[in-house]
Write a structure and sequence with these properties.
single chain; alpha/beta; Rossmann fold; two-stranded antiparallel ribbon; 14 helices; Peptidase_S10
């Protein structure tokens, strides 16, 4: 296992990087807005808030530049917190998935953008980051930067990004900051937060107030092996296949073998049977959804390797890809394509160290809670890729390890006059919640319920128990 010592070493290295950076000359904050201001995106309806996008260089030698999209809050941005959103993959775009199909202010629809009335910028200033380099519009002038990219380098680059972004937007430097994201962001976010906490011990640079993780990978075997029970309980596989999937070859073993190019005959046989029964006409990211909307949204680079061949035609994804590949859109976004011919939802040029998947991050979540940072883990309850049962088990186990008592017993919560999901809170600092009827990308499939969850999270309140 990876010890906490390893994380400490990483954190100290990052502190040194930042101190070096402080000694360098940085862009003066007086230059902060004009070059990154978006006057209007093609097809965009009129809005009263400002939005910005552009590049922040995170490595001057290799010219690694991360692309961001920043949307100020609809009303009174100066009084609202700053929220960083990261999508997973690793290698999938926070601009295309997070901003344009989940919780951003607009969604592409043919030639135009339509308003998302449940956009998270109703409650916060939202910052979407395409990370690591090689994802979306983010690039490096050295192609070696795309090779053997790992969690450690990603966390360090994300940290430098934030620091330099604050130089461009100094009015946000001391604003309450929340980190949010989903899927493989269960790795990205705890690691980034951990570096922030380490730096804050020396000099308080970040007002980190909480992290929220949606359907996150936190502990590989628990998360992946809850898939069998989810399939079985939802009627997607038979009793006999369920028995094989739990005894002969479970999903974490299959993924481990797959990424080591050594899939055993027994695992191959079990996975073929599972695939045959679940069928390719059911979206694994939302088992109740009809399959046009599917793989968009699927941040499936690593966590669902056996789905990689299923290219179902996808409506939403096609709209986003078409929109973001328009020259006029790229110009309005101050974006450019470097080393790739087109913008893609998930990167084809990034070579990520996929075995980082097996390093648990749940212990880092525990150290953040110990440092006083509130953590919310939430699950769209129709996702079979990272099912709610694994996440709930991990949160419960962590609460016990930390000696946290239940402060809100397991109960329903409401949005409008309907049950929005279920929740449980430990020690008023560690929370678990489900979003009823939501997919792996909860804000996409249940936007209203997701916005309610987000608002409660920012306010530090339990989810509403009455309608």
């Amino acid at each position: 296992m990876y010890s906490s010592q390893r994380w400490k070493t990483m954190a100290m290295a990052a502190v040194v990087v930042l101190q070096l950076w402080f000694s360098m000359e940085v862009e003066s904050s007086s230059s902060h807005h004009p070059d990154h201001n978006i006057t209007r995106l093609p097809g965009q309806p009129h809005v009263d808030f400002q939005h910005f996008s552009g590049y922040i260089t995170v490595d001057d030698q290799k010219h690694k530049a991360l692309f961001y999209y920043f949307v100020e809050a609809e009303i009174n941005p100066a009084s609202k917190p700053l929220v960083l959103w990261l999508n997973g993959g690793p290698g999938c775009s926070s601009l295309g998935v997070g901003a344009f199909s989940e919780n951003g202010p607009f969604r592409p629809d043919g030639e135009v953008l339509v308003r998302n009335e449940y956009s998270w910028n109703r409650e916060a200033n939202m910052l979407y980051l395409e990370t690591p380099v090689g994802v979306g519009f983010s690039y490096s002038k050295s192609s070696s930067s795309y090779v053997a990219v790992d969690d450690e380098a990603t966390a360090r680059d994300n940290l430098v990004f934030l620091q330099r972004w604050f130089n461009k937007f100094p009015q946000y430097k001391h604003r309450d900051l929340f980190l949010t994201g989903e899927s493989y962001a269960g790795h990205y976010i705890p690691q980034l937060a951990n570096l922030m906490v380490e730096i804050n011990r020396k000099e308080k640079l970040f007002s980190l107030k909480g992290i929220a993780l949606g359907n996150p990978v936190l502990e590989f075997s628990t998360d992946f092996n809850s898939r069998a029970e989810f399939f079985w309980s939802h009627g997607l596989i038979s009793d006999s296949t369920y028995n094989m999937f739990t005894s002969v070859c479970n999903y974490s073993r299959y993924v481990s073998e797959y990424y080591r190019d050594s899939v055993s005959p027994s695992c191959s046989k079990v996975m073929s049977q599972v695939s045959r029964e679940t069928s390719k006409f059911v979206d694994k990211y939302d088992v109740t959804l009809d399959v046009c909307i599917s793989s968009v949204l699927s941040q499936s680079k690593v966590i669902s390797p056996n789905q990689m061949t299923e290219r179902i035609d996808v409506c939403v994804e096609d709209k986003i890809v078409n929109y973001l590949n328009r020259k006029d859109v790229q110009k309005a976004l101050h974006a450019r394509l470097v080393g790739v011919r087109r913008w893609d939802v998930c990167s084809n040029i990034l070579d990520y160290q996929v075995l980082n998947l097996e390093i648990p991050t749940i212990s880092l979540v525990g150290s953040l809670v110990k440092a006083g940072i509130p953590v919310l883990v939430y699950s769209g309850d129709q996702d079979s890729v990272i099912p709610l049962t694994g996440s709930r088990t991990l949160v419960y186990r962590l609460a016990r390890e930390l000696g946290l008592n239940t402060t809100v017993p397991y109960r329903v919560w409401f949005e409008g006059k309907q049950v929005g999901g279920w929740t449980q809170v430990y020690g008023n600092i560690l929370s678990f919640a489900t979003i009823r009827g939501a997919s792996h990308e909860a804000p996409f499939s249940q936007p209203e319920r997701s916005l309610r969850l987000f608002k409660s999270f920012l306010e530090g309140r339990p989810l509403p128990e009455v309608f």
